[in-house]
User: Fold this.
Amino acid sequence: MTSLRTLRVNGHDYTLAVDAGATLLEVLRDKLGLTGTKKGCNVGDCGVCTVLVDGEPMNSCLLLAAESAGRSITTIEGLSRNGKLTPLQEAFIHEGAIQCGYCTPGMILAGTALLRENPAPQVEEIKEALAGNLCRCTGYAGIVRAVSRCENYRGDGTCGDRTAHDERDGQGNGRAPYRDPGGKPFAAVGVSMPRVDAADKATGRALYTADIALPNMLHGKILGSPIAHGRVRRIDVSRAAALPGVVDVITGADVPDTQYGVSPARYDEHVLAKDKVRHVGDEVAAVVAVDERTAERAIACIQVDYEELPVVLDAYQAVQEGAPLLHDRYPRNINTHVEQSFGEIEAGFAASHYVREEEFTGNTIYQSPLEPHAAIAYWEHDGTLVLYTSTQVPHYVQYMMAHVFHMPLGKIRVIRPAVGGGFGGKAETTPLDLCAAILSRRTGRPVKMVYSREEMFHHGRGRHRQHMRFKLGVDREGRIQAFKSEIHLDGGAYSSFGVATAYYAGSVIPTLYHIPNYRYDGYRVMTNKPACGAMRGHGVPQPRFAFECLLSMIADDLGIDPIEIRRRNAMAPHTRTVNDMDIGSCEFRATLEAVCEKSGWDGKYGKLPRGKGIGVGCGGFVSGAGYCIYRGQVQLSHEKGKEPFQKRSIFPHANAVAKVSEDGMAVVLMIGAAEIGQGSDTVLTQMCAEALGIPPARIRMRSEDSDISPLDLGAYSSRVTLMAGHAVARAGYAVVEKMRPFAAALLQCDEADVAARDARMWDQRSGRSVPWEEAARKYFNANGPLVGTGCYKPPDGLGGDFKGGTVGTSPAYSFGSAVCEVAVDLETGKVRIERFTDYHDCGTPINPMAVHGQVEGAIVMGASETIFEDVQFDEQGRILNPNLHGYLMMTIKDAPDIFSGLVESYEERGPFGAKEIGEGSTLPVLGAVAHAIANATGVWIKDLPITPEKILRALKSREPQRGPEAPAAALART
Amino acid sequence: MHVPEVEMHACVTLEDASALLTRYAPRARVLAGGTDLLVDLKTGRANTQHLVSISRIGSLRGVWATAEGLRIGALTSITRLHHSNLVRERCAPLRDATGQMAAPQIRNMATVGGNLACAVPCADLPPILTVLGAEVVAWSPRGERRLPLPQFFLGPRRTTMESDEILTAVIVPPMPAGFGAAYARFALREGNAIAVAAAAAGLRLDGEGRIADARLTLGAVAPVPQTVELAREVLVGHRPDEPLFEKAAAAAELAARPISDVRGSAEFRRRLVGVLTRRALDTALRRAREATS
Ligand SMILES: Cc1cc2nc3c(=O)[nH]c(=O)nc-3n(C[C@H](O)[C@H](O)[C@H](O)COP(=O)(O)OP(=O)(O)OC[C@H]3O[C@@H](n4cnc5c(N)ncnc54)[C@H](O)[C@@H]3O)c2cc1C
Ligand code: FES
Ligand code: FES
Assistant:
């Protein structure tokens, strides 16, 4: 039923035909084009749809449009007046409260409502007011800062006091500039400038894929299997196809036979099931219709007849003889077996003074970015496929689309609009990308497809649940002698990144401590659950958690302080590890000293009352994978011969073009690096500006379109700062080189004496200078377009000559230590994570504020996965909590206070000395939380997540037995 | 994930609303704040073709002091209730629940009537309202009925209201002298999480400091708010102390009929019930003593 309603939105009246069942969210986005109001869960759990209704924040996904008629509605677009931002919007921009920006409009509206009632709120009041707004990126720290410091902003682009968070920034404490090893200060690098995309995100202007509507566009939906394992016998789509508004329906018969995936040796997914379904949600059919609602109704009308097969959900059971087999090609469901041995493992244990063995179990973690995956596809008349997609790896999507559709990569244009967080969950081609392309080709119209929150969980690609059997031997002083690791990784139904995951789970462990003898056996196992993939810290966080726990247990056993045992084993700079990882700069020890001092460790460890605990955890990560995911050159995979592996990069992993405007006043920086919220557009702008010698404000970033920007492999393995950073810096230097003769002519000096700095070209000898743009114009007058290009290849020969020796290789490694403080309610088991103290060695922080933002986000995400998060399944393989009220992530009220600090470090292989922070920042967290809880309770919980229930059970098993009849007995007793 | 095809009826009088409910029964539902019903409609848990919106019936919104006690209009939002001065002065224990439930956005939309009428076992208002002796006012053209809360809930998502009845208000009687009450809940996370277990306790002290009357009602651990009769027997006539409260907690654990789900096992919930009972009793006692002195 549709009726006319008048809605008052941002001060204007709109009279619209509104469906009785249409939510305010749908009407704002689809009818009024106010896409600053986001959809994240659709059921009140996430707050990204927040609007003000008569001044009060409400979830527009739960408010029917018809019900909101006659009330005054304010969306994010209604806050700024005539382009002038509000003080709170400015505070968000300058205080680092924005990363992917998907939560930002809702946060700002909720914050605005609070500040109207209470202009000077206490931190607790801020947390209360924002408790309904989830953020997956920032760890809420920047958000709390922004709201509490809002009064310093005047809404005129200036800020009264901007000196607050400097103590954290290592070298020069943020007051003095960062310098290169020669002592020359950097100008644009090492500076906490606001993100280049922050204002768009604070005003709701930033467009995410689902915000885009193309003319004549259709909407698609995918039907997922209701059973976890079965053969598809028959599909009847007739009822769906006959539904008014349905344009097309496809099944497995309509999609290419080519399988796709991530690891070239293990492409094992079909766009839609050809014969079998292997997990609940496995894609079976797809529908395209005039709107999403119709498409949704249509998929419900498709009838599928399945032959059900037995289901296997547990990794240990899956490898047993006779267990249900998911794929014929993986006997005993073993997708990957890694066997690596370095040194003399048994001799190492024999020489150990003390050996401890423990078993640990991880949890199934889902990235849960707040922006659901989305794709829009259309085909140009010349046969070019255009794909808008919410991805962190535009190039690999292009490569995979080419592979599935047997078409040249050059005929595929991938556009990556703003991305609302990825964390690895958007690091591969999705069924949305593929189905939208197929349906668009068949219908000749643009097709848009967006996952619901539940579909995201079924698509999966989250963290592997790992079953870890660890054995660690140390000498009398606690120095590691030998370490043996056996891991079963529960991989779900398809390979995805799993091969790499299985190798990473072993290879990055020896980068942190000296381990002379090491053995790793990894089994990546198929089970009837959504495929697991690469999540922040890829493969390493759970083994790192287990290792850190075991090391702390041993420290306690031997009476050595847990920080001291780490100091004794800490990696030294310029070391080749036992598994041939090439460590360059390493200030791990400095991070340990710093957290120890800053947290007041010595006064706390072992001295806290029961229920209070402190713990330490450490970790580090690669700064970009040493090798590309596929072999050979950039070319359609079917046309390549069998590629022998070469220990060098065939093509540059990052490529940039810097194009100077004809008047010399602007530079357009083009690189396909994926900005997904982590801040890559900003740090790349800074590094290019440093090389060009101009302020970052003169640079405009174009990273979203493969037609415009050259290839970059994307946002994974924490590679962008280092690799894309080199590319953009080199592009900048190339421009300066071209300008050099023209500047020398203007300055009448030697070319060799010319330097670019502060938007001027200098004769370093005489100290005279001319405007940068003048030299650029002179170049253009003579030669036409002033363009510089730059690229980056990782060093040749990385890694050892054993199987899997390439995984975990990197030009550089990060290091970090974290101390966690908790309070545990010993009666209910509830954990309150109170404080985190973290120090990192990330090399030169290109943007310290962005670095702290990554750390704060990683701490909250990591702490959340340690104590809350777990995708749970029933016996039939159905997810019990595919939503954000069952799958709990930390809210602002759960987030700890965080101190993030940096130690001085300079990486020779990194651009301007930089390494990484995005993933390494996750690694210390899990172990630190687990240790702090053990310290508070006296019990180690070795399976994640560490829930109140597990804590109580562990505490109880140490008490005298209290059986089920206990309450009655207690009653009788008294 | 969309609200299915529905018809919307925006009513301005109770008569209209009730007539529509009768006309379209059983496929009609009252729509108040919508925070429960819309989720059910989107996830396919509710199957309704007619939404009878009562949000324009202004007389259902507000908190009034009457001779019988506090009258809370069914459409009063949780936020308004929480910030109502009348509630603060006369019915403060209610704020233990209103301050902890859901998130600000939800509390701005969610209504008191909806929280009761949805009859969801983990709803936060029913246990404490039960302990406070509240009654529900159900209106139909046949007249008004008063239902004490224990007679209101039948089971999960089932109440004793007729299909054409509308919950118009909740009446909370004045708290007697020497009375204190409290609500304690356990949720897995601090913000926007529903209760895994909850306990509401009320105690009245006599002049000598003995317990003259006691009430204990549990939430989220039984199909309906579970009043623990045994606890009253255990407590009344005694001087409050730790062992006594331990006994009451044990009684509560016995009375609980929890289920296991993603939030926790039945066993875990039962343990929580004991802890929460003690905590609610402790706070109720403190408040009762404050009310006496
Ligand atoms: C994210 C989220 C978190 C939540 N957290 C909590 C929580 O922590 N604690 C908690 O208790 N609840 C919670 N809820 C549930 C819900 O918000 C509350 O139960 C709320 O009070 C329901 O009120 P409403 O007005 O929105 O009800 P509606 O959704 O409008 O209605 C709910 C049901 O009651 C019926 N109904 C409503 N009003 C009347 C009336 N006056 N007469 C007759 N029938 C009526 C409707 O027909 C419907 O069946 C949460 C919900 C969401 C979405
Ligand atoms: S989309 Fe409305 S709360 Fe998540
Ligand atoms: S910035 Fe908050 S969700 Fe990404």
